[in-house]
Structures are given as C-alpha cells and as structure tokens.
Amino acid sequence: MRLRTSLLACTLLATTVLAVAGNAAVAAPTRYEAEAAVCTGTIDSNWSGFSGSGFCNGTNAVGATAQFTVTAATAGTATIGVRFANGTTTARPADLLVDGVRVTTLSFEGTSTWTGWTTKTTTISVAKGSNTVTLSPTTSAGLPNVDYIEVDTSTPVGGNGSPTDTNIQYYGRWNRSDPAYFSMGWAGGYLDARFTGSSIGVRQRNMIDLYYSIDQAPLQWRRGVSGNVSLAIGLSGSSHTIRIGYREKAGSYTGDPVFGGLILASGAQTAAIGRPVNFVEFIGDSITVGQPNADRPFTAYPWLTAEGLGAGHSQVAQGGACLVSQDCFGMMDWFRRSSAWVSYDDWNFATYQATAVVINLGTNDVGHSVTSTQFQQGYVVMLERVRQAYPNAEIFATGVFRARYVTETRNAVAARNAAGDGKVHFVDTTGWIDPATDTSDNVHPTEAGHVKIAQRLRPILDQYI
Ligand code: GCU
Ligand code: CA
Asked: Which of 43, 57, 88 to mutate to test the pocket of ligand 1 (most atoms within 8 A of CB)?
C-alpha cells in the first residue's frame, strides 16, 4: 500500500516535470544588485566578496528594508535567491514581501564572518511587468548585509490546485487514498496554499462547515456548503495565500470533511508555500477538540498554542476519548489511526513528523472503570508508542484540568525518564483554569478558558522547540 502510494507520487512528479519542461521559457536568472536598490542604511564596500560595487548595510532596526524592483516577462512562479552575509551568530529573520504582501519569512542565519557570503533561495509568484520585492527585518538587529537578489522566472512550478498538487501543504491526518478528495481525519486538520489570480474557490463533496482565511485575515466560516464553493473574487495583487479547514466529523455531526481541490481563476496556478519547522500534535478528548465552542478548532488551546509558536499543528482528538479503555476511543491505540472512524492502525507516521506532542487524557477514563494501575501502565505504553512514532519529538504529558489520574500521569513520565527517555515532560496544569468561571459545564473550557491554557502551555513548549 505504502509502495503504491509512493509510486503514484513519482508518476505525478514526473508528469509535472515534463509539463514544466515543455512550457518553460528559457531564461537565466536576473541579478538585481543591492546598490541599485532602495536600502534603508548605507551602501558599503568594506567586506570583500560582494558582487558589483557594494552591498546594503541596513540600519539595525525592525523594518529597515532593502527593496528591489523585479521585472518579469510573464506572470508566474519565480525562484528568488538572496545573497547575504551575517557576521554574527544570531539569525536575522526578515519578511519577504512581493508588492507589499508577505510571502514568507527568511531566517538569514549567522555566517560567522561578514565576508562569508551565502545565498538563501525561495519561491515567489510574480506579476507580468514590475514587482517590488522587499526584505523587511523583524528583529532589532535588522537585515544581514545584502549583496544582491537573483530572480529566475524560468521555473514555472505552478500547480493546478488539485488535492495531489505538491504545492499544497497539509497539516494533520489526511487520508489521501482517493486522489479526487483528500479526507480530514480527527479534528483541526487544515491546508495552506499560495495561488495567483483574482478569485479562489474550493471543491467540496457533501455538506460540510468549512473555515478559511485569505492572506492571513481572521478565519471565517462557510457553513453547510457542498459542491463548488466560491470563497473570494476581485482579489488584487500578484499572489495570495489561503488556509482551509473543516469542522470535525464526530458525535452526531456527519459532515463530509474532504478537500476536492482549489478552484483557480482562468490561467492561475498555485505556487510553493513555506512550512514551519515545528509541528505540534495534540492528542486528547473533547477538550482538545475545543468542544462545544462554535468556533473550534481555531479557538481551542491546541490551535492557539501552536499558532503562537509559529508551528504547524493537529488535534488528534475525539469527544469522549479515553487513554485506556477500548469502549471509548482508547487513544493509546487509536492515535495510530488516520481518523476516529477507521478500525485499524492505518496511519503512516512517515507522512510527517511532529517535533512536539502534547497529551491531555484521563478526563474520561474515570467513567469506564479504569483503575489507577491500568491507567499508569497504559500511559507508559502510550509514551513508548508516541516515541516510536516520533523518534525526535519533545513529548508533554499534561495533568488533566479536572485533576484525574494526575499522580499516575506524573509517574508514567518518571518511568519513561528512568528508562532513558529524557524528552518526555510532565506538565502540571493545577490552577491554570477555574472550573467555575473558565468552563461552561465544569469540564469544557470556554473560549476564554482555552486562551488561558494556551498562555500557560506556550512558554513551556517554547523552552524545548
Ligand atoms: C558591523 C559590520 C556591518 C554590519 C553590522 C551589523 O558593523 O561591519 O557590515 O552591517 O555590523 O551588525 O549590521
Ligand atoms: Ca547593518
């Protein structure tokens, strides 16, 4: 099964490459020297190895930019290389904006010396004619020294927006066995894409509540939609980003959380979009889903915590889930499934690796006669299995907010630490929320309760990832 999937991926890739080769305009990259750009700082020449007559030494401040004007013969995807030197040991991150719209953040790591010039490459979408490309530093150290940018418009790696389009970045457990409709398992799965053109829509199958955001605007709902769904028209600018996610299928809700592809404007295409280095997987029950709040998953603590860290995330969670008991989604087994509605361990953990895993389980086991001993032993097995699934992840076992099996949770972590796994941490959540004011029913946090949890959890994760 796995082999067939990867063969399919190869075939698709080969087809794409052929198509690209057939359409590609032949052109070498064009170099734009920093001394001809708008540099908020000085054009210097004291560090050798630069090209042309100098480099941009930006003022050491947030927003002290270098701005280039790039000309493209046709609209499409372009590869951009930024040649820089950062003689410090601290990265100098900067946003890369095209026509004022942020495309990505480049990290510009330290290069040890100011003569250690190196090139950072990424992909952007350009409009026909002139485009401004701006490097805007996000920390007070400002930009590294910038020698030039090179833009290659002969790499049209645009995709067609279909579910198998490799420009689309998926987060969470997606079942990809049907190339026409990728199906979101569990809760809180989403996808990010970049696209050109002035309109965007999404192809659905049966009825579903979906949420989306264009160009990082606040997420909004389109509830009860099916078929072809138009999300925006009349967009200006050369390229845009979109995030789409779906309400989880669980309990009495049987919506169809599938992604059938983006509906692009005529002649438009997708382009590559970045993926954060960190990915946090949250494993839990209704609290981790964010039930019963209407704007879950994005008002729930997992989403808030990970977004605050600039990390990707998923909520492998289900209302009523236990850790141990098999009559209530015993997550020590079920977390190895692609969704709560498959009956065997089908998930391929090689699809993505979490850099952190947060477990919040134990609230429901009480109602299923799980003994203290069973819970603790089960938790140790769970921690072993998570380690097997994610060999390098930092694992956080959180005491549940209703203070059930907290000692057992702590003991399980201690057992794994004693067995040599130092990247497993117990998180004491005592006092994080007040059941009287921060929950709707003594169990489920309100939106404000979720914010409080995220505010406590985020700095803990931040110490490790
Ligand atoms: C030094 C170096 C400059 C550099 C600056 C900085 O002054 O000579 O070229 O721009 O450090 O830290 O930004
Ligand atoms: Ca400088």
From this structure: 57
